[in-house]
Amino acid sequence: MGFETYSEEETFLLGKEIGTKATAGSVYTLIGDLGVGKTVFTKGFGEGLDIKEPINSPTFTIIQVYDEGRLPLYHFDVYRIGDPEEMDEIGFEEYVYGDGVSLIEWANLIEDIIPKAHTEILIEKDLTKGFDYRKITVTEVM
Hints:
Rossmann fold, alpha/beta, 3 helices, 7-stranded mixed sheet, about 20% helix, globular
């Protein structure tokens, strides 16, 4: 499914809508260049899970766990991962095959260890349509 957003608020609200529909054990991969809005989308996604705590990108910690919403959110940012095997050190499989919802930024860097069944979210800019324009493609992968 394809979506177009024209502001940070619209990107946030789309994230919230998708987060509202998330179920236990779901894995979402977020792919897009730096500054494209992955964290804005994730903040909305967290609100859709009824998470009240501020959501920040875990770039330096790799994972941030939010467990006070209707489902736990395991928010990964794997931008700084040099080798997918590093994910074993943080218990990656326990999270993605657990009872929460996993949202993985920069998932294309560890695609070999992403569960086969997941939802891919690709966020792209097109400056010809405006600075805040985003094309967001949501694909169910089986």
